[in-house]
Design brief:
Blueprint lengths: L1 E7 L7 H10 L7 E7 L16 E4 L10 H10 L4 E5 L10 H11 L2 E6 L9 H6 L4 E4 L2 H8 L6 E2 L15 H11 L8 E6 L8 H11 L6 E6 L8 H8 L6 E3 L8 H10 L2 E4 L8 H8 L4 E4 L5 H4 L5 E3 L3 E9 L2 E9 L2 H13 L1 H20 L4 H6 L13 E7 L4 H6 L4 H8 L3 E5 L15 E4 L8 E5 L1 H6 L11 H9 L22 E3 L14 H5 L6 E3 L12 E2 L6 H9 L3 E5 L2 H9 L3 E4 L5 H4 L8 E4 L3 H4 L27 H20 L1
Parallel strand pairs: 1-2, 1-4, 2-3, 4-5, 5-6, 6-7, 8-9, 8-11, 9-10, 11-12, 12-13, 16-17, 16-19, 17-18, 20-21, 20-23, 21-22, 23-24, 24-25
Antiparallel strand pairs: 14-15
Length: 681
């Protein structure tokens, strides 16, 4: 078993960091790990003394000369055989005084160092590069922190911690809310709108700004009151400031001294509030927002630092932070002034008035808050794989992966269409959601595919976030000499994914255009205008027995007397047009694969690529492949794939044009006769 030492606030305390550690301890697999906890604070509550814990607890920070227990911690590490040390929820700079000694112990004892920490600075400080350098696995618990720190340390990973006692935070029925309010605050009636503030009396929580805003708007939205779940004495003298503002009984209520902070009491207090306000200057992670959301309480919150992750999507009423502020902070270099952003005062007042008077808005915030909290709880990270890294070489970093399949296809339309053969097999094998990544212009091809759960823009930086990644074209097909093999391109996709090929699929979408009752689809240009454009299509079209519908891109060679739908159809609309055609004459490209997949009789004209490789998948009885006489015009007498080798003789005319119009017409005539014969059978 690995020996694990977790360092943080006391798990039996009331601090957010202590709760974080306690929640993680509930999720550790103790069959794999021998766990000890070094608590830098004392317990805030008396737990059952007979309760057996699955971990060993060491209480540190008991000396006034060593408030964090740094020396005690160093001695524990020195005398113990430890595989993994993990700091939980602590600002990384708090142990600055013992940092060098700790690094030396790491060098001598060879343990793995993990840090799970907040990041709430508005501006980056260079000290972080030095602090993060020796950490084997740095974990930040906010997406804001990840984005900011990744610019300077690419090893930083995002870890979403669990919410302590999450199952206890629930909304009460209205009758119970009102009864609780009457029992706790006898002078507040059910008609009074009650704002609530839950936080420590400290500078970064900015409670005085909230108080001032409240007193400036309270007469405009009466009856209204404010509850402060904080201590009157702290960084700020709340009693004095309230007196200066003219506070009277019933205006502002402050947490009673020695009020228990157990979860049950917090749930009661959240439920009696009509709105939670958190206007902090900066946040590493505000648990109060998640707790209030689960209790069905609408929220006003500062739109800054790590808090942005919790309030996005309409989960809270955001107040923009445009006012400048400064926070004194003790760093290894001494006390410094950290520049921060405060809520715009007028915007804060406006938000409070809007929330108090707009019930539909409150209902919307409650609904979105439930959704956000549920999303958080369903996306918490697993601590066990992180701890297991202690049994691996120290340079290996484990990342929390999305339990999803990511299928990557950069381009182009035909390749995206061919890749749809793989989805059924991948979903059946892995039983995970499937995410398809491609460029935006090709996403319509896979829209409404029954096996795809999400479509995202092409960005290879995102691949590291997924547990399973398939990129058959980018990793296997494109780099290799696939064009020299006697293997069809369409068969390579399921082969490299190790699945049984499914049918090629595209959702049909009827276009807003009047089509002839019977028609033949014409397509003249396959990507490269110079090498894959058939110049004789007018001669072919003039002798066809049905009206002509032309598909393709805006710059494709136009056919006379055709219904011109070039650049007017989506991929799925093009599929509809192809499906209902009597036959099609197309260039080797997306339309050829489309016709093959839909069973439309098709004549495919090949140019600088061989039919043996790029032919479409489909019923061979409904397809005729016409290849050029390359010896007649090709200077290299080989397939150039539209990119002739540099320095070699280019063809005098695109080889595709050696295909006679008469040959094309005979091929179409044969397909139409065969179709009629099948119908008459």
């Amino acid at each position: 078993m690995l020996n694990i030492l977790l360092i943080g606030d006391h798990p039996d305390g009331f601090s957010g960091n202590g709760h974080m550690l306690a929640a993680l301890l509930k999720r550790i697999n103790y069959e794999k790990f021998n766990v000890s906890v070094f608590a830098i604070t004392s317990a805030s509550r008396q737990m059952d003394v007979f309760q057996k814990k699955p971990y060993h607890l060491i209480e540190g920070g008991l000396s006034s000369d060593d408030p964090l227990g740094c020396n005690q911690l160093l001695n524990v590490i020195y005398q113990s055989n430890i595989d993994v040390i993990m700091f939980v929820g602590l600002d990384i700079w708090r142990f600055g005084a013992a940092y060098k000694d700790f690094i030396q112990l790491k060098h001598d004892k060879k343990f793995l160092w993990i840090s799970l920490f907040p990041y709430d600075f508005t501006y980056y400080r260079k000290e972080w590069e030095e602090w993060l350098s020796p950490v084997d696995i740095p974990l930040v618990y906010s997406k804001y922190g990840l984005e900011e720190l990744r610019k300077h340390c690419d090893r930083v990973q995002y870890f979403r911690p669990p919410l302590y006692d999450s199952e206890l935070f629930v909304p009460f029925p209205e009758e119970k809310r009102l009864a609780l309010r009457e029992s706790i605050f006898q002078s507040i009636g059910g008609e009074t709108f009650l704002f609530g503030f839950f936080g420590v009396n400290q500078i970064r929580k900015d409670p005085l700004r909230l108080l001032k805003a409240y007193f400036e708007i309270k007469n405009e939205i009466s009856p209204v009151s404010l509850y402060l779940h904080t201590e009157v004495q702290g960084i700020y003298n709340m009693e004095d400031y309230l007196a200066q503002l003219g506070n009277k009984m019933g205006d502002v209520f402050i947490k009673r001294r020695q009020t228990m902070c157990v979860t049950k009491a917090l749930v009661d207090l959240y439920n009696i509030c009509n709105c939670l306000i958190n206007v902090s200057l900066q946040e590493g992670l505000s648990w109060t927002l998640l707790e209030a959301m689960l209790c069905g309480v609408p929220i006003i919150a500062a739109n800054n630092t790590s808090q942005t992750e919790l309030i996005e999507g309409g989960a809270a009423y955001p107040v923009e932070c445009t006012d400048i502020a400064y926070i004194p902070m003790g760093l290894p270099s001494g006390v410094v002034q950290i520049e921060a952003k405060a809520c715009n005062f007028e915007s804060l007042k406006s938000a409070m008035k809007e929330i108090a008077t707009n019930k539909p808005l409150r209902d919307s915030l409650i609904k979105n808050g439930f959704k956000k909290a549920d999303e958080w709880l369903n996306g918490i990270s697993d601590i066990n794989p992180i701890l297991e890294a202690g049994s691996t070489p120290k340079n290996i970093v484990l990342t929390k992966k999305k339990r999803e399949i990511l299928f990557i296809q950069h381009s182009s339309a035909g390749d995206v269409l061919m890749s749809t053969q793989c989805f059924k097999g991948l979903k059946e094998r892995h039983k995970y959601p499937l995410v398809y990544m491609t460029q935006p212009q090709y996403q319509d091809i896979v829209k409404n595919n029954p096996y795809i759960d999400e479509i995202i823009d092409y960005d290879l930086n995102k691949t590291k976030d997924y547990l399973l990644v398939y990129n058959p074209h980018g990793e296997k097909i494109l780099p290799g000499g696939w064009n020299n093999l006697d293997v069809t391109l369409h068969s390579m996709y399921p082969y490299f994914c190790k699945v049984v090929p499914d049918d090629i699929f595209i959702d049909l979408q009827k276009p807003n255009v009047e089509l002839p009752e019977k028609y033949i689809v014409i397509h003249t240009t396959g990507g490269s205008i110079e090498y894959r454009c058939y110049a004789h299509m007018d001669a072919v079209a003039a002798k066809l027995p049905y009206p002509i519908v032309q598909i393709g891109g805006a710059f494709d060679r136009k056919v006379k007397n055709a219904l011109d739908l070039r650049d007017k159809l989506t991929f799925r609309e093009t599929a509809y047009v192809m499906k209902h055609a009597q036959a099609a004459i197309v260039i080797d490209s997306f339309p050829s694969h489309l016709a093959g997949a839909l069973g439309t009789p098709v004549v495919v004209l090949f140019g600088p690529a061989p039919a043996r490789v790029t032919q479409p998948k489909g019923d061979k009885n409904k397809m005729i492949f016409l290849e050029p006489n390359m010896l007649e015009v090709c200077g290299i007498t080989s397939y150039c794939w539209s990119t002739p080798p540099e320095g070699k003789n280019k063809c005098k005319t695109p080889c595709i044009n050696t295909i006679s119009p008469t040959t094309v017409l005979k091929a179409v005539e044969k397909l139409l006769k065969d179709k009629e014969a099948r119908i008459n059978e």
